[in-house]
Structure of Cytochrome bc1 complex Rieske iron-sulfur subunit:
Amino acid sequence: MSTHDNTPAVVDQTTHDRFPNPGMPPHRPRRADVDERASRRAALQVVIFFTLSALGSIAFLVAYYVIDPELKGTIIGIGEINLFHAALGVTMAMSLLGIGLGAVHWAKTLMPDEEVAEDRHPPAASDEDKAAVAQQLSHGWRSSQLNRRTAILGSAGGALGLFALPLIVPVAAGLGPRPRGELYRTHWQDGLRLMIDPSGAPIRAADVTQGSVFHVMPEGWVGHQAFEEHGAEEAMISKSKDQVILVRLDPSIIKSQKQRDWGVDGIVAYSKVCTHVGCPVALYEQNTHHLLCPCHQSTFDMTDDCKVIFGPAKRPLPQLPITVDDEGYLVAADDFREPVGPSFFERERPGLLMGDDA
């Protein structure tokens, strides 16, 4: 029968003292450390790599603007490819590779490579330590040979500076032209009938009973008609900014004179695009006369020009001026007098408030 001794082993704490600290391995000078010609050659190679990167960045920009994005080509072993994308990929790789090779070669051949061990010291540095750090930084600057190899510093700065352009230019160009009046105008205009969405039926003022709600779009921009006449893109743009909610209120509870003047016998029309982040404000509470945005619960008081009474929205919903035509149908009296939807830069810029292109 075997037995096991479970008694924990006792470690002799003096064992660690039996092995002397080996210290740092001896430094082996590189060829560039002892041979000035080798040092100059290494510096030239670093400059070449950084210059290669700069040329790659410039080639990227040239390819971006010169090559047709739809140009196709065939490469043996790969097949048909888009030459525009291939050119952008090759030039971007050239730009990255040049920076990487230049930095690595610089570090391996010219930068200091001695191992240094630093003992722990109190967090508060003495004046002597500060002076020593400054001396070490000065020594590092000199030993990196940047004070002598200004071509490396210039080529590295040029490569890194130009490398930012392929990242910035496509993003900036892809944003499209600067928005102008299209942020201030919708498709509503004087005389356009209010059409029920999505049926496309016009609305007589006499048919709008108190408390009733209609979701309307401008004439010619409703349902399939908008897609067929204007195309899918324009139809979707119209849907995103032209949508309006129409409600008939008791004129006696309307607090704003402007609200009465822009309505018809208590019938008022407001943009459905929430002024917070643009969700459709489509929930109407008949008892409180509140409009509720379902996304973030912004609440607007329809009796007080759709001012915000709760939630993150900061601006009232814009009112659409309406009137009645000769046949008794509700029509727009004008476009909105302010931009619909969330706020944006330059929203209050004079001269653009009414949608000018100036």
